[in-house]
Amino acid sequence: MSSELIERIGGREAVEAVIDHFYAAVAEDAPLRALYPQDLGPSCEKLKLFFEQWLGGEARYSARYGHPRLRRRHFPFVIAEHHAESWLGHMRAALTAQGLDAADFDEVWGRLEPLARHMVNAHEDVPREPLPDDALLT
How much is the CA Rg of the chain, to the nearest whole Å? Predict the structure, then answer.
């Protein structure tokens, strides 16, 4: 992704709006909501930091939590294909609501969709213990 993408889509403020929209939908989606802790606030804040960095912004996620290692960080949650589909549906709606330029949407979506599908682990023998947030800080 180009480093200018975050600026083209509206910067940190746009990322926060997308993630807030996304989490409002997650809160109403019982099967997907079941994967999250009772308090969605910390997960929402983490995703905001990750998305900002992933879209070419400041590396605030890595500074706070270390290397993203997304797949490993998601091992404690049994994620099935239907969870990934729901997640992607809510994220598509959140990105669409932000009114991204078609080319910018395609650039984000082209990398986001395979990333979300990579989190599916329901039928895999993976370590299910949580990875501490500071485990990868150097």
Answer: 15
